[in-house]
Amino acid sequence: MPSDGVPALELEGLTKRFGDFVAVEDLSFVVRRGDVYGFLGPNGSGKSTTIRMILGLVRPTSGEVRVFGHPATSPEERARMAGFVEAPGFYEYLSARDNLRLLAAADRRAEGRAPLQEVLQTVGLSDRARDKVRTYSQGMKQRLAIAAALLREPEFLVLDEPTNGLDPGGMRDIRALVRQLSGEGLTIFLSTHLLSEVEQLCNRVAVVSRGRLLAEGALTEIAQQARDRTEYRLVADDPERTRTVLKSREDVALLNGRPEELEGFRPEEVVRFSTGAEGAGPVVRRLVEEGVEVLALVPVRPNLEELFLRLTEDG
Amino acid sequence: MVRWELFKLIRQRRTFLGLGAAAVVPILFLIAVRITRDGPPPGEAPFAAQLLSNGLVIPLITLAFGSVVLLPLLTVLVAGDAIAGEVSAGTLKTVLGRSVGRTGLFWAKAVAVEVYALCVVVVFVGVGMLAGWLAVGFEPLAGLGGTPISVGEGIALTWASAGLVALPLLALAAFAVFLSSITHNSVASVVGGVVLILLLQLVSTLGLGGVLDPYLLTNQFSAWLNLMRDPIDWDPIVRAAWVSLLWAAASFLAAWAVFVRRDVLS
């Protein structure tokens, strides 16, 4: 798996406006070869518009998409890439096999029987290949979309919410397939709103919300960012005084909002705050100096889920 | 790609509906004529005098009334769906994700739609001719100036007429493809095509066309009648050809220009 050389995908200042609405704003990141790159964001955050620009379906208002170093403005320059965006569309009145043959023809490839059977086998659709796509379930259509992409023998695979609308078994199958394809050396760009999917499959991730990039990097780095700023829940005999003390300190952020749960205490007694790398020690010392008795102190390490929510809600 | 566009067309119900109607209507007309044994009064329609006695006038009379609404409708039914149908089914994004460029795909579609429009005319005239021959038999035609036309010449002139009717039909198909390209909506494109025809006919009927009247697309549908005169009046025929080609070229070029630039959002 080559990790050097030109990246599989580069976005540079990619922006798309529809009238006054900014769907994607100044998006820049790089997908290196061999990555399983997670593109994470809530629904309606501009993920699909971005993928449409990558696939050449939508023209960027400004900015550039480069695929293997070339501006992806013509089909030839996108030839090493394959994928789909949103619910895959197929000719429902044709069989899966005819759909694939048609798409192979649209690639100006010989519609060889062997590759056709091979990709159908890979996604587990060989038995139903002669049936009309109209009779297919959502999961089968998703798998057919992956087969259609693989038929191009791409080096770079773009998958938009490939497990959307699938039952747990279907999700597991697709994820296993993504792992297998990545193992075979494909670079994969995987858009999803499911954090668990990114955690299971991806090595790098970009988090977007409302068309803007919120975080980007190796999954472990982003998780580290989450850990660097630890949250605490604290209960003292005088919550009011505690808040006053906390507010006076620059290294502490008092977190309001949701009522806090801490077993054995009433929610209004619980104070939530976060500190930097120095931890809660200085805070507790100060509280004791002020004559506040600390009854409980519980560190809360935000998991990726919480980090994701925090990023996308505050952004 | 053209081959696959045609393959897709023949696998769609819409196409069969169109071709089926083109085949059924001449037969229904003939049955109605045979049952009532009562044609339109002579002079009302061309060739009506021979309606009951000569099967060769069946395709000509059906062509005369079919080119007013039926053939245009059957043409835009499929042509208006050419791009919009792929947009609503979400297949356009699938195909455009492949190596075929937008230009290549567009012209493949354009050719497929025109082949369909030609098939509509061929089926319509062919079935009418066959039914007329089987049910009534052929006799020499009375031409529009009264000059008799032999059976062989009549058959040749009927097919020439079909070709002449096909010209504005191809232009209309191109216009429906244009609507399909700008609206991305099948129903709007089909209705839009029909509305254009009705509007132009209305303009012509109310005499609003002025000097432009001979150049309206709808008025080219009757150019074939001039083939049935002795001598043949070529002026309206030549005009039908270039007016139709101009419409077709303008529509296709505009449709193509939109198609290659338009964002695909479905």
Can you lay out the helices and strands and say which pair or pack?
The complex is a heterodimer of chains A (315) and B (266).
Chain A: E1 9-18, E2 21-31, E3 36-40, H1 47-55, E4 62-67, E5 70-71, E6 81-84, H2 96-106, H3 113-122, H4 138-150, E7 156-160, H5 168-183, E8 187-192, H6 195-201, E9 204-209, E10 212-218, H7 219-228, E11 230-236, H8 239-247, E12 252-254, E13 270-275, H9 281-289, E14 294-300, H10 304-314
Parallel strand pairs in A: 3-8, 3-9, 6-7, 7-8
Antiparallel strand pairs in A: 1-2, 1-4, 4-5, 9-10, 11-13, 11-14, 12-13
Chain B: H1 2-10, H2 13-36, H3 57-66, H4 70-79, H5 84-88, H6 91-96, H7 102-135, E1 141-142, E2 148-149, H8 151-183, H9 186-205, H10 234-261
Antiparallel strand pairs in B: 1-2
Helix pairs in contact in B: 1-7, 2-4, 2-7, 3-7, 4-7, 4-8, 4-9, 7-8, 7-10, 8-9, 8-10
How would you explain this protein's 3D organization?
The complex is a heterodimer of chains A (315) and B (266). With 315 residues, chain A is an alpha/beta fold. Helix content of chain A is 33%, strand content 27%. Chain A has helices spanning 47-55, 96-106, 113-122, 138-150, 168-183, 195-201, 219-228, 239-247, 281-289, 304-314, and strands spanning 9-18, 21-31, 36-40, 62-67, 70-71, 81-84, 156-160, 187-192, 204-209, 212-218, 230-236, 252-254, 270-275, 294-300. Chain A has a six-stranded mixed sheet, sandwiched between helices. In chain A, strands 2-1-4-5 form a four-stranded antiparallel sheet, covered by helices on one side. The longest helix of chain A is centred in the middle third of the chain and has 16 residues, at 168-183. With 266 residues, chain B is an all-alpha fold. Chain B has one domain. Helix content of chain B is 67%, strand content 2%. Chain B contains ten helices and two strands; from the N terminus they run αααααααββααα. Chain B has helices at residues 2-10, 13-36, 57-66, 70-79, 84-88, 91-96, 102-135, 151-183, 186-205, 234-261, and strands at residues 141-142, 148-149. Chain B has a two-stranded antiparallel ribbon. In chain B, a hairpin with a 5-residue loop joins strand 1 (141-142) and strand 2 (148-149). The longest helix of chain B is centred in the middle third of the chain and has 34 residues, at 102-135. The radius of gyration of chain B is 20 Å and the shape is globular. The mean pLDDT of chain B is 93. Chain A binds chain B through residues 52, 55-59, 74-76, 79, 82-94, 98, 102-103, 105-108, 145, 148, 152, and chain B through 1, 3-4, 7-8, 11-13, 89-101, 105, 261, 263-266.
